[in-house]
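Hi there,

I know you've been waiting on this one. I reran it after we fixed the sequence typo, so this is the corrected version. Both the input and the resulting structure follow.
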Amino acid sequence: MTKQLVIKVTAGADAPERCSQAFTVAAVAVASGVRVSLWLTGESSWFALPGKAAEFELPHAAPLPDLLDSLLAGGAVTLCTQCAARRGITQDDVLDGVRIAGAQVFVQEVMEEDVRALVY
């Protein structure tokens, strides 16, 4: 079985360094051949919407749209159900490739064999 990395990012523009770290680690893992599941929760939920990643700026950091594109191409990106609902975001609103799922799916993922989980 291939190892998987599940990353839950709770930070967005409110904590740019923490947010960027989560996306960077996830993208590097994908580039290294690791199965990656990135969960967008809290303020990072906005990055599930078209154009929102382009609004994010952090000096000396990889552009968030590039990181997100690599994750959508080679990993899984999930938006938290409750976080989406609180922000009025529906499946029709999100980028292609982003799914909306809840805590039950998150728990299933992190409880699989050979899974490592990080929270940012």
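Quick highlight: The two ends are 26 Å apart (CA to CA).

Best,
R. S.
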